[in-house]
Amino acid sequence: MSLEVISFSLLALLVFFLGTTVWVGISLFIVGILSIILFTTNPPLTILSNMFWNNVNSPTMIALPLFILMGEILIRSGLSARLFNGLAPWMSFIPGRLLHVNVVASSLFSAVSGSSAATTATVGKITLPELSKRNYSRSISIGTLAGAGTLGFLIPPSMMMIVYGIVAQVSIGQLFIAGIIPGILLAAGFSGYIIIRALINPSVANQEESYSWGDRFKALPQLLPIVILIVLVLGSIYMGFATPTEAAAVGVFGSFVIALFYRQLNVGVMKEILTESVKTSTMIMIIVCGASYLSVTVGYLNIPSQLTQFITDLGITGFQLIIILSIMYIILGMMLDGFSLIVMSLPLALPLIVAAGFEPLWFGIYLVLMIEIAQITPPVGFNLFVINGMVKEDIMRIAYYTIPSFIIILLVTFLITLFPDIVFWLPDLMMK
Questions:
Q1: Which of 145, 199, 275, 371 could be joined to 338 by an S-S link, Cβ 3.0–4.6 Å?
Q2: Within 301-317, where are the H helices?
Q3: How far apart are alpha carbons 35 and 298 in whole angstroms?
Q4: Burial class of residue 330, CB neighbours in 10 A (0-12, 13-18, 19+)
Q5: pLDDT at 420
Q6: Between these two residues, 163 and 53, which has the higher pLDDT value?
Q7: What is the pLDDT of residues 321-341, one digit of tens each?
Q8: Closest CA to 127 of 189, 92, 85, 188
Q9: Do the Cβ atoms of 84 and 126 come closer than 8 Å?
Q10: Residues 58, 64, 65, 69, Cα dihedral to 10°
């Protein structure tokens, strides 16, 4: 049977099951099993059992639920409110003033949560009411929050990087370190946009607030817990004291100590933390295992090698391939969540990227940036849903507010494509 027929059949099956609202992970399993039964003579259940055990039993996979647990503890420890109070005085002398709290708070919280939705929800619950009360521009407040919230996937520790590292067999420690500079660039881009808008139109920010240097120094203790946690988690990885999995355990312990220090833990809160952590971890693991099984299926069907050869024969350059993939990911991102985007596209996209001369490490950062765009593009933009639940405003209007963030993410993607050393410099330094 031809490649075209097999590929179309596989895609049609996937679209059918996803369209019938079957869970993404289960859909991936069903399509994988049916494809092996229909197009090969291999035993589907034997392949399934081996793949499932290898994925779930991986030491790297342990990092995923640990980082999720750490984020849940921090969300319920009152850290976000302290973050706003600690940052507000230090942002007051920059054009745009407290609008920058959206960006800086999201950057800091991203470095301990690893989740875009958790970052957006946690920071937004504090910043949006405060900015609204102070008469800051609603469109910029919402738009920069939606964009900066996506930093939860790029600034380590990142759930998406862990999933990509497992599926693509790339060092998660190197992915974490590689995401730091692009993450800083992206945060600087968001803040730069705020500064430009504030210089053009000062009315977007409240000009009446003022803080003394005494207020600023008094606010510093509010930032201390999260700074300590970032140093513990990322410092242990960068200095070589811990693997990403071990650093996740360090992060859980640190967040637990912070919550105890602020007396935010009781039996009811611990039950919520554990319940939400189990739900989220289970959902992600089912998707990862389903995607891994589908990847094995695609390999048995010989689709990646034939598709790679087809693209190679077209004679397109590496940059042309990146443009094609970017358009594809933007379209897919309108319909799929980030985890599905990684695991469903990687079996086909990664061989093409490697054949075009790009490194899998670089492609991981590129793919995370594409997923960040997916977070703020309707109709399935998770950050849009999170903000919609907080401000009760139309999804399409929220999406309109995020257009500048969309452009900024695309610009950073262009920069790392043009200058790949932005991605490689820090991991190379770490290896030395």
A1: 371
A2: 303-314
A3: 9
A4: middle
A5: 93
A6: 163
A7: 899 889 888 877 776 667 777
A8: 85
A9: yes
A10: 150
**Which whole number is the average pLDDT over 262-286?**
82
Which residue in this structure is represented by tokens 């695309």? 410
Q: Do residues 360 and 420 lie in contact, with contact meaning Cβ atoms separated by under 8 Å?
A: no
Query: Contact 108/226 with Cβ under 8 angstroms?
Result: yes
Q: Is 115 exposed, middle or buried (0-12, 13-18, 19+ CB in 10 A)?
A: buried
Q: What is the pLDDT of residue 366?
A: 95
Q: Identify which of 49, 179, 54, 154 has the alpha carbon closest to the alpha carbon of residue 373.
A: 154
pLDDT score of 187: 93
Q: How far apart are the first and last CA of the chain?
A: 50
| Helix, strand, coil content of the chain in percent (nearest 5) | 80, 0, 20
pTM of the model: 0.75
Let me know: does 58 contact 321? Beta carbons within 8 Å.
Answer: no
58 band by pLDDT with thresholds 50, 70 and 90: low
CB atoms near residue 431 (< 10 Å):
10
- Which residue is it, tokens 């907080």? 390
Give the lowest-confidence range in 64-73, 90-99, 198-207: 64-73
Distance (Å) of CA 385 to CA 56, 109, 120, 240, 394: 30, 19, 10, 38, 10
Distance CA 44, CA 48 (A): 6
Say if residue 60 is exposed, middle or buried (CB neighbours under 10 Å; 0-12, 13-18, 19+): middle
Residues 399/375, Cβ–Cβ less than 8 Å: no
More confident position, 383 or 53? 383
The tokens describing 327, both together, are 């358009």
Q: Which helix (H) or strand (E) holds 250?
A: helix 244-261
